[in-house]
Design goal:
Blueprint lengths: L1 H8 L19 H11 L4 H7 L4 H7 L4 H17 L2 H12 L1
């Protein structure tokens, strides 16, 4: 299952874009977890919102690093605590674009 998530998120650095190749997937559960922890910085809510739109959409909501993901989460939490549900929906819509 983690291997499928790795492929879906495009976390394999050795796979050339646009070329057909068989990717070298992690062989163990530990390797798969390490790869995801080091390359997949995405909010679960964002992932669920855009996963049906394809890999390009997922790449659009992924963060470049962990710090960026944590910062975006703190902004989201601040808005959630101080805003009405309508503002929350607008914020989620902006994240999905």
């Amino acid at each position: 299952m983690l291997q499928a998530l790795i492929l879906e998120l495009g976390c394999l650095p050795s796979v050339a874009k646009g070329k057909f190749s068989i990717p070298q997937l992690p062989a163990t559960l530990r390797q798969a977890k390490l790869l995801l922890k080091s390359h997949a910085f995405i909010n679960v809510r964002d992932y669920l919102a855009v996963r049906e739109q394809g890999q390009a959409a997922l790449q659009g909501v992924m963060h470049p690093n962990r710090k960026s993901l944590v910062k975006a989460r703190s902004v989201y939490t601040t808005i959630a605590r101080s805003s009405s549900p309508a503002t929350m929906d607008s914020y989620i819509l902006l994240l999905a674009i």
